[in-house]
Q: What sequence folds into this?
């Protein structure tokens, strides 16, 4: 069966510090991968998605970046965090070639920027 | 106009009642519709999807789609306290098939 793991689960970072969130998927090949952010009082916002190694599409201009160094690994990064980067970050995957709506989410990473 | 809109609630129903959760969308060309459940502090999980007009039943859950009126709803029969969660409506919209989420509605089932 397929599983998705995301870490760290919780982190508190000062403004201006770097960020690295990692996500891995097991039990499937060539998944579509996504990074979402859920801020308080707001809906899920798609940040990045990837259909293959090294292929990253950005949905929202910001100080975040994403990379996909391996087929089932997706990394979200920032060189300098802003207060507005606080939120619940969710990695998700879907089956390649199928509809984009059937997503399987990781456990989430709750980021607080102080 | 927001692309996917849900009444923010919260919605409170007694145990055993039917909970009705509604969602409207703006893109008339949308073809795929999804309901996710999110427990407090947890990640969303897909519980239902519907592509055709009408009803789709899965256990205690029924998704209803009306493309002419541009709304999709989720009915939960015999509501249980374990159904207490936030329910997110999601719609695939636009020519680039983007999945757009509503802000969600929080359901509370009173024992």
A:
């Amino acid at each position: 069966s397929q599983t998705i793991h995301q870490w760290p689960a919780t982190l508190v970072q000062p403004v201006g510090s770097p960020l690295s969130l990692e996500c891995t998927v097991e039990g499937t090949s060539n998944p579509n991968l996504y990074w979402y952010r859920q801020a308080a009082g707001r809906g899920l916002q798609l940040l990045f998605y990837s259909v293959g190694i090294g292929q990253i599409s950005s949905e929202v201009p910001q100080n975040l970046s994403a990379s996909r160094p391996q087929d089932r690994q997706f990394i979200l990064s920032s060189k300098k965090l802003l207060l507005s980067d606080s939120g619940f970050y969710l990695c998700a995957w879907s089956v390649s070639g199928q509809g984009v709506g059937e997503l399987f989410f990781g456990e989430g990473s709750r980021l607080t920027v102080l | 106009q927001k692309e996917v809109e849900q009444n923010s609630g919260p919605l409170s129903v007694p145990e055993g009642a039917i909970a009705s959760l509604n969602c409207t969308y703006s893109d008339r060309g949308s073809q795929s519709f999804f309901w996710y459940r999110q427990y407090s502090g947890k990640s969303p999980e897909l519980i239902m999807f519907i592509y055709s007009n009408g009803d789709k039943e899965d256990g205690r859950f029924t998704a209803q789609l009306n493309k002419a009126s541009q709304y999709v709803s989720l009915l939960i029969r015999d509501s249980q306290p374990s159904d207490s969660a936030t329910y997110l409506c999601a719609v695939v919209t636009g020519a680039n098939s983007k999945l757009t989420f509503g802000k969600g509605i929080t359901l509370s089932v009173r024992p």
Notes: Chain A touches chain B through 16 residues (CB under 8 Å). DSSP finds no helices and eleven strands in chain A. The mean pLDDT of chain A is 93.
